[in-house]
Amino acid sequence: MPRVLKILMLFAGIIGIGSAVLLVVLANSVEPRTVEPSVQPRSPNTDPTLPDEEVVGLSIPEFALIDQDGKPFARADLLGHPTILNFIFTNCPMVCPFMTDTLSEVAQRLRATDTRFVSFSVDPLHDTPERLREFAARYEADHSRWTFATEHGLANPTPEGGFPELDANTSERPTIVGDILRKGLRMMTRANPDSPVPLPDGTTMANIIHPEWFVLLDERANVLGVYRRSDPAEVDAMVARAKRLDR
User: Fold this and answer.
1) CB-CB neighbours of 159 under 10 Å
2) Is the per-residue pLDDT at 227 higher than 80?
3) What angle do CA 77, 88, 170 make, to 5 degrees?
4) How far apart, in whole angstroms, are the C-alpha atoms of residue 206 and residue 200?
5) Distance (Å, rounded) from C-alpha 198 to C-alpha 90?
6) pTM for the model
7) In the prediction, which pLDDT does 16 show?
8) Nearest to 237 by CA among 62, 44, 69
9) Strand pairing of 223-228 and 213-217?
């Protein structure tokens, strides 16, 4: 084999090995996106009243919860106006404050519309109505338009009695909000015991990894689109679409 060709092949091999190492490093450095809807939002419809192609088949099933005042809150309360949903828990150390702050800004931008907002708790053990009210007050939430919903005190989903510590969306430990996510929106949550979250009483709980998406519904509670909280362009698109729905 010509010496020049051998040198070129050796050089190519070195580049190939280096590229493989780089890919491994990158793969290990990127946080896995374990909580995503089964679809990715892409190009929305020009008609704001039609669901985006990627969310066809998603829905909000029937549910019965209570709000931050302990009053009943059900799927029927989503009817008659556009609604933006998200999923939080009040002890969340990072994502939920950012998401709730963004939704507070969205609510201000949509204050001249009839759009409503709902934040579902994924932590029925700790998120009592009182706890939700305290959390909502940090963001000056207007409860005539923004509901914080929980299932605390409504069910007994575990064989041992009481609530599961985490909404893991399992058949053995089902939760109402878990069914909304898993059965209706095809989204999931999972526990992350390797990242304990401190509680006000000095104890800890496992972190809950949950969706960071906003879900836009029409006045019949049909899912129209999902929007990434961390992408300002998607948030802007959601706001613009909600304004068009209100016309």
Assistant:
1) 7
2) yes
3) 90
4) 14
5) 11
6) 0.79
7) 41
8) 44
9) antiparallel
DSSP-assigned letters across all residues of 203-247: -EEEEEE---EEEEE-TT--EEEEEETT-HHHHHHHHHHHHHHT-
Instruction: Indicate the residue type of 170.
Output: T
Long-range contacts of 31-34 (CB under 8 A, 24+ apart): 34/188, 34/190, 34/209
Report helix, strand and coil shares of the chain as percent, to nearest 5.
35, 20, 45
Q: What is the DSSP string of 134-160?
A: HHHHTTT--TTTEEEEB-TTT---STT
Residue located via tokens 């702050």: 101
Nearest to 103 by CA among 125, 91, 123, 120: 120
Specify the pairing of strand 146-149 against strand 116-121.
parallel
- Greatest CA separation found in the chain? 83
Helical axes 95-109 vs 232-245, angle rounded to 10°: 40
Amino acid at 100: T
* Rounded distance between C-alpha atoms, residue 52 and residue 41, angstroms: 8
Picking from 53, 144, 67, 80, the residue whose alpha carbon sits closest to that of residue 107 is 144
For 89-104, the pLDDT digits (tens) are 999 998 999 999 999 9
Confidence of residue 129 (pLDDT cuts 50, 70, 90): very high
Give me the residue label for tokens 């609530």.
163
pLDDT confidence of residue 173: 56
Measured between alpha carbons, how far is 158 from 63 in angstroms, rounded to an integer? 18
Tokens in use for 224?
A: 């129209």
> Mean pLDDT, to the nearest integer, of 163-177?
57
Judge whether 147 and 107 are in contact, CB under 8 Å. no
Higher pLDDT, 19 or 144: 144
Instruction: Tell me the mean pLDDT in the region 198-216.
Output: 91
